[in-house]
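Self-study notes.
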Amino acid sequence: MSVRAKKYLGQHFLTDELIAQQIADSLTRNDYENVLEIGPGMGVLTKYLLKKKYTTHVIEIDAESVEYLQAHYLNLANRIISKDFLKIDLSEHFGKEQVAIIGNFPYNISTQIVFKTLENRHQIPEFSGMFQKEVAKRIAEKEGSKVYGILSVLTQAFYDVEYLFTVPPTVFNPPPKVESGVIRLTRKENYTLPVDEKLFYRVVKTAFQQRRKTLRNSLKTMNLSDSLREDTIFAKRPEQLSVQEFISLTSKIEKDAV
């Protein structure tokens, strides 16, 4: 594939075999039989996944990469999905079976891949992949940090997040201008919320839209009662709240609306 095509896709292809093997080894659960690699490119990670006990599937939107995989990885057979991951229905390809997600994700859609995973968390028990380091850190960060935000809270509401290791630009073609980071998401045993999910998302997103303000000010648009607004939690800024506190806040708002 040409460098121009790679840049167009927003993807930097990994060339370091050791790092590829480390990423393949980062999936550790044994309660699923299928793994879906997003954006395999020329298959540097794929070949290590194919050595694992689970069944490896790949999804690739680039026609040149699909042709290369078909020619060089015959044992993938009919497990190459030539579609956009963001637009597929996982159940059409895997039925009700569980499937782990892995990949060296294109930077320009990496956040969307996470949100797609959250929407399909009932089917995705584990997720491991490489992001721009800044994004990986944001997903894994805890409350109290300046980079803790919407992506951190929504992901950690359903998954345990681990930042595994940092990857330098020199092991990619073309080399990105920033470092990359590999993270692992492990679905929580209870991955449903005790509050309305849409309201939870709205509270988190609204709060962080004005992250420097206290919740009393940033959540003004939610038409909360005066008595609720006096609750001590509203004196905090969003970055000070843990995931559990955001769930508690949503519960308070839910009851306030009754």
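Second protein, same conventions, sequence then structure:
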Amino acid sequence: MNLLVPHDGSASSGKTLDKALELAQKMGGGKIYSVVVVPDLCISFVGQDECNLLDDTLRKEGQGIKKAVEARLAEKGVQGEVFVKAGSPDTVILETADQVNADYIVMGASGKHGAEIRGALGGVTCKVVNLGRRSVIVVK
């Protein structure tokens, strides 16, 4: 069984990864794929130097998250692979799910910039649930 777990470095993503690890172990194995999305936050009135600095900072943060997720997978003895990709989070998550042939996408109800309203889904989670073809397990 292949599980895709998007991770943005938030506490919610850490909790979601733990739940996915628990699921994989209960299923007697499986592989966990994780994707860290580096969003393009450059806007037209920001100079190229600022864009490059922002992009570099976000990529370094993404690599740090990747290392933390890889360490957690190794600690639990679960096979996995972690990707760092640039783009729109919902699009990258759905494309990666297709790429790894995920049986399920396991993601938090909200992430780093998610909804604070109890019971509300964050924007990225909502898009993945509504636009994707794969089943999504939402972790609260």
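Instructor comment on the second fold: The chain has one domain: 2-139.
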